Amino acid sequence: MKTGIVFKEESFKIVGACFEVYNGMGQGFLEAVYQECLALEFAEQGIPFVEQPHLKLKYKAKPLKQAYQPDFLCFDEIILEIKSARNLADEHRAQVINYLKATGKPLALLVNFGHYPKLESERFLAPPHSCHSCDS
Fold it and tell me: In the chain, what are the domains?
């Protein structure tokens, strides 16, 4: 069985780009400002990303009309959800966990640019029975 950190290098690059933006812009802007800065930083660093992609959702293996639109999808597999709040809250974490379950993506990063004195970031792995199994 393979052990180790899932998407370790890719996660490191994404969070590094987030730190670069945080160091350049500081804390206190709206999410939209950080999102625009991150798109520029990802492009500059050669990090593959799609900004606000429409990810299909399923319920009991049936496609839904509703789609999830995360802030970024990086490396085709990592959801990046950004916040600009005083602190990350359980609602933010629940949102990301639900997105992992519904999309079948293996990893999500939750990053908060509103925290002082430093950037907050958390990693979330897909639950063992995420929607990958809904496809069969």
Answer: 8-135 (3.90.1570)
Residue 81 near residue 109 (C-beta atoms within 8 A): yes
The one-digit pLDDT tens for each residue of the chain (136 residues) are 456 789 999 999 999 999 999 999 999 899 999 999 999 999 999 999 999 998 888 788 888 898 889 999 999 999 999 999 999 999 999 999 988 988 889 999 999 999 999 999 999 999 875 544 344 3
Single-letter code of the amino acid located at 42: F
CA 106 to chain CA centroid, nearest Å: 11
19-28: long-range contacts, CB 8 A cutoff, minimum separation 24: 19/119, 20/45, 21/113, 22/113, 22/118, 22/119, 25/113, 27/84, 27/113, 27/114, 27/115, 27/116, 28/84, 28/114
Sequence-distant (6+) residues with CB within 8 A of 3 are none
Kindly report the CA angle at 121 between 31 and 32, in degrees rounded to 5? 10
